Amino acid sequence: MNYLAHGPELIKPITQIHPRFHMPFLAFLLNDGYLIDPQKTSRKKMVVHLEHPSTNRERIVIEKGNIPNEAAKKRYLLFLKMYAKHGKGFIEKLRAQIKIKNV
User: Fold this and answer.
1) Burial category of 85 from C-beta neighbours within 10 Å (exposed 0-12, middle 13-18, buried 19 and up)
2) Is 29 helix (H, G, I), strand (E, B) or coil?
3) CA dist., res. 74 & res. 28, Å (int)
4) Which residue among 12, 59, 63, 65 is least packed, with the fewest CB closer than 10 Å?
């Protein structure tokens, strides 16, 4: 039986992004064409706003404590499905794309 053909059933709803997946998830969103909105993103408040150039995509907001809005929850679920399908290498490739610069 191909278990990957069946979507995972959630036992509980997504309430936050796991801290271990925060940066790979941001890389996943950036690879999908989302752009960080510098006008609304705040390091002090620890809020990240992402918009897609396409007008038919919803704005993604990740607030303090890695709390996602509804659009982010949908994308995070897709991210988790990709992780389940491709394994640890998927996360490692995303982490390799991240370059953090101290400002």
Assistant:
1) exposed
2) helix
3) 13
4) 12
**Where in the chain are the domains?**
15-94
Q: Distances from the Cα of 60 to the Cαs of 4, 73, 90, 98, in angstroms? A: 27, 9, 22, 19
Q: Taking the model in full, what pTM does it have?
A: 0.79
Rg (CA), the chain: 14
For 31-87, how does the pLDDT look when each residue is reduced to its tens digit (9 = 90+)? 999 988 877 877 777 788 888 888 788 889 998 888 999 999 999 999 999 999 999
Tell me the H-state helices in 7-64.
Answer: 22-31
Neighbours of 83 (CB within 10 A): 18
